[in-house]
DNA sequence: CGACATTAAATGCGCTTGCATTAGATGTGC
DNA sequence: GCACATCTAATGCAAGCGCATTTAATGTCG
């Protein structure tokens, strides 16, 4: 169904609903495809899962140590899942955890040199995968 | 960064990449939000998980019995995951499985009356959740 | 016909996730 | 100061997923 047909139908409620459902199917399809490809490519080439990469990416993007809490707002993971991702990254020496002096409940996560270079290696792979999947139908900037 | 700035930058490669990454973040965010809400609402109100609902929805949409294989192409699940979803649905008496006469390796999945009415109950809930999440920034029809 | 590759669906297994809870640190009110 | 609510991060636990494998049926080729 084309945009013209939708808007020309005269039934805005149906149009909205159809558009919403189409959007959901788009999101479902691309998410599945991208996640699957990222898991394979990042895993095979760089030994990283999508969540591990995303956490490294957020830290590199901010270019400073972050609190677990801050990361939690940016990555789409529950607090417990994030806690475990950080634990795996620490085990792999890609980040280090340190207690926060100001609030001793908090935990800072610092990226290590090894973490930084691993991220730099993996970044082109991630971009290539995403470009492969989204280049044809990106969302025109919200 | 605005669309104008992007297009005005003169570097189409960077623009493309930024658009692709923005699209990925859009997909990640909406997928997480929608999945979480669907899991909660469909689960609490109708005793269905998102995968269970999706499978019922595909069968209702086609309005006939489908082979596992056919469902596999439409649902974003691995063959093994789908096999288990169908097993759960059968346990809940929402579908029934039957061997295919033509190819006795194959399995047909039929929706039951109970499955049909459960789907009908759940559909408005699903639509409400999706509208809540996508009404503001749907994708203008690809 | 008979051995071997192929296909469909189910199952073993390990991993990641979210929910609920816990342990420890910090804030609040009397 | 002290009891109690709140907050942060970690952990026990069960559920769902994908990969690899298995079981059974079907094709294929000599």
Describe the structure.
Chains A, B: Pfam families: MarR_2. Chains A, B: Keywords: DNA-binding, Transcription, Transcription regulation. Chains A, B: InterPro entries: HTH_MarR-typ, MarR/SlyA-like, Tscrpt_reg_MarR-type_CS, WH-like_DNA-bd_sf, WH_DNA-bd_sf. Chains A, B: Residues 21-142 form the HTH marR-type domain. Two copies of one chain form a homodimer. Chain A is mainly α. Chain A has one domain (3-134): Arc Repressor Mutant, subunit A, CATH 1.10.10. The first copy, chain A, is 68% helix and 8% strand. The first copy, chain A, has a three-stranded antiparallel β-sheet. In chain A, a hairpin with a 7-residue loop joins strand 2 and strand 3 (107-111). In chain A, helix 2 (12-46) crosses helix 6 (113-134) and helix 3 packs across helix 6 (113-134). The radius of gyration of chain A is 19 Å and the shape is globular. Chain A binds chain B through residues 1-3, 6, 16-17, 19-24, 26-32, 34, 76, 127, 130-131, 134-135, 137-142, and chain B through 2-3, 6, 16-17, 19-24, 26-32, 34, 76, 127, 130-131, 134-135, 137-142. The structure holds a DNA duplex (30 and 30 nucleotides).
What characteristics describe this protein?
142 residues, homodimer, 68% helix, MarR/SlyA-like (chains A, B), Arc Repressor Mutant, subunit A, three-stranded antiparallel beta sheet, DNA-binding, mainly alpha
Summarize the structure.
Two copies of one chain form a homodimer. Chain A has helices at 3-8, 12-46, 50-62, 68-74, 79-91, 113-134; strands at residues 66-67, 95-99, 107-111. With 142 residues, chain A is mainly alpha-helical.
